[in-house]
Amino acid sequence: MALALNIENLHKSFSLGFMLKKKKILKGISLSVNEGEIFGYLGPNGAGKTTTIKCILGLIFPDQGKIELFGHSHLSLQAKAQTGFLPENPYFYDHLTASEFLTFYSQLFSIKKNEREEKIKGLLRIVGLEQSADLQLRKFSRGMLQRIGLAQSLLNDPSLVLLDEPLGGLDPIGRKEIRDIIVKLKQEGKTVFLSSHILQDIEMICDRVAIIVNGEVVNQGTLKDLISEKILFTEIELSGVEEKELKNLGESLTEKGGRILLKVFEEDNVEKILELVKSQKGKVHSLIPRTETLEDLFVGMVKQT
Amino acid sequence: MKIRAIALHTLKEAIRDRILYLILFFAVICIGFSRLLALLTIGDRVKIIKDVGLSSLSLFGALMAILIGTGLVYKEIDKKTIYTLLSKPIHRYQFLLGKFFGLILTLFIMLLLMSIIFLALIFFHTFTIEWQLLVAILYIFLELCLITAVALLFSCFSTPILSSIFSLAFYLIGHTAWGLETLIVKIKSGFGKALAQGLYHFLPDLENFNFRTEVVHNLPIPASIFLYSTLYGIFYTLFVLTIALLIFRKRDFI
Question: Do the Cβ atoms of A109 and B13 come within 8 Å?
Answer without folding.
Answer: no
